[in-house]
Specification:
alpha/beta, five-stranded parallel β-sheet, globular, binds flavin-adenine dinucleotide
Length: about 400
């Protein structure tokens, strides 16, 4: 019987395991996860999950793994891959032979180099265990300093305010969300945080973060010191590539795969946050996405290709973030755009369309309350996938339905 091994029991790995069964695979599946809990959704960790839940939101109920004959190994690291002998070694010493291997090892929160102390009052957020550790520090009367005005930092800031904590966000760049989010959208978010009482400081250099007897101190480049009960580091994530590197697989800002998610090793695939891949829609440029939907879609695609489908990546990158009652959504990749057009959707919601010099729609970024931008972003996504050159006037005229542009 064939044996497929999946390393990494996150969104992507779990999705791939279930998709293998959905697609009729009858062989053995082993899903190896370093964390002690069954695969869960990470997005709630910085949002409502941090406010409400003590249990993570699981990708699937534990019984379903048994029902689907998925041998889920938790609290187990894969420590080595022998790509010639086709064997994976686990942290408990067990060796598993595989016919096909999928690496879905995800990413880890990036640490800050200037940390002095044990880290008890200086935290990062990537796992359910991290979130559980953070919760008590976000209570009323406590002060959190968040380093990094990216998505995780800002979502944490919104959640901390909801829980009643005081929050300062320190960002090195001149504005928050500098990577991938247009200024007009970032401004809405910044203003909303300020209205909610978050102290956002941009353009700051951080010299060191030090633990003190009762809290932590952030030392800024201009000599200022900021005291907080807790410092949260939210400066991005880096792909987990150590295992792949050790096995001699090609790595290029993530485990390098081709458009079918194949690594440089025979019968070894990689998918989700851990891999970089060529995106045909954008001229084959190599990208790595850290997004929930990408992890799901690539898990499903990897399963198809483990079964020999030979399908190529075709999805449009898509990302969302919730802060307070605002939802931001971004479809496509905006770098390379030369023109930006705005469509107002009412009640403060709007979408920015990003076009290249030929008028081709490359990306759309929207912000609004609740689901205000969801439908139009979905339509923009379809236009992006179709490599459409929509009429600029129609894009900006809110009375013209975006759907009508699809037929054009
Ligand atoms: C706090 C937070 C909020 C987020 N919010 C959003 C959002 O709003 N919108 C959005 O689109 N995306 C969001 N994301 C990103 C999204 O959650 C990720 O893109 C997605 O989880 C990636 O899934 P993955 O399976 O590729 O990797 P991961 O979820 O990182 O899972 C990989 C798993 O592999 C395990 N692993 C690694 N190496 C080994 C090994 N050697 N042996 C065994 N196991 C191993 C890891 O421990 C981990 O459990 C958020 C992420 C975080 C952390």
């Amino acid at each position: 019987m064939l044996h497929f091994v999946i390393i990494g029991a996150g969104e992507c790995g779990a999705r791939a395991a279930f998709a293998l069964r959905e697609k009729g695979f009858n062989g053995d599946i082993t899903l190896i996860g370093a964390e002690p809990v069954a695969p869960y959704e990470r997005p709630p960790l910085s949002k409502e999950g941090l406010v409400l839940a003590h249990e993570p939101k699981f990708v699937a109920a534990l019984e379903r793994y048994a029902d689907q004959r998925i041998d889920l190994r938790l609290a187990t690291h894969a420590t080595d891959i022998d790509p010639i002998g086709k064997v994976v070694t686990l942290s408990d010493g067990e060796q598993l032979s595989y016919d096909k291997l999928l690496l879905a090892t995800g990413a880890s929160a990036r640490s800050f180099p200037g940390i002095v102390g044990t880290g008890e009052r200086i935290r990062m957020l990537r796992t359910h265990a991290d979130a559980t550790g953070l919760r008590p520090a976000l209570l009323p009367g406590r002060h959190s300093a968040i380093i990094g005005g990216g998505f995780i930092g800002l979502e944490l800031a919104a959640t901390a305010r909801k829980l009643g904590a005081d929050v300062t966000v320190i960002e090195g760049l001149p504005r928050v969300l500098k990577r991938g989010v247009p200024e007009a959208v970032a401004e809405v978010i910044t203003q909303r945080h300020r209205d909610e009482g978050v102290d956002i400081r941009c353009g700051e250099t951080i010299v060191a973060v030090e633990e003190a007897a009762t809290g932590a101190i952030v030392r800024l480049g201009d000599g200022q010191e900021l005291s907080a009960d807790l410092v949260l580091i939210g400066i991005g994530a880096q792909p987990n590539v150590a295992l792949a590197e050790k096995a001699g697989l090609a790595v290029d800002n993530g485990i390098a795969v081709n458009e079918r998610l194949e690594t440089s090793g025979a019968d070894i695939y990689a998918a989700g946050d851990c891999c970089s891949f060529p995106l045909a829609l954008y001229g084959g440029r190599r990208v790595r996405l850290e997004s929930w939907r990408n992890a799901q879609e690539q898990g499903t695609l990897a399963a198809a290709n483990l079964l020999g489908a030979g399908d190529s990546i075709s999805a449009v990158p898509w990302f969302w973030s919730d802060q307070y009652d605002l939802t931001l959504q971004i479809a496509g990749l905006a770098d390379g755009a030369t023109t930006m057009l705005r469509r107002d959707l009412g009640e403060g919601a709007f979408i920015l369309f990003h076009l290249d010099e030929t008028g081709r729609l490359l990306a759309a970024s929207g912000i609004g309350r609740g689901n205000a931008v969801a439908r139009d972003i979905r339509l923009a996504e379809m236009l992006i996938a179709a490599r459409a050159h929509p009429d600029p006037e129609a894009l900006t005229a809110s009375h013209v339905k975006l759907k009508s542009l699809l037929a054009a």
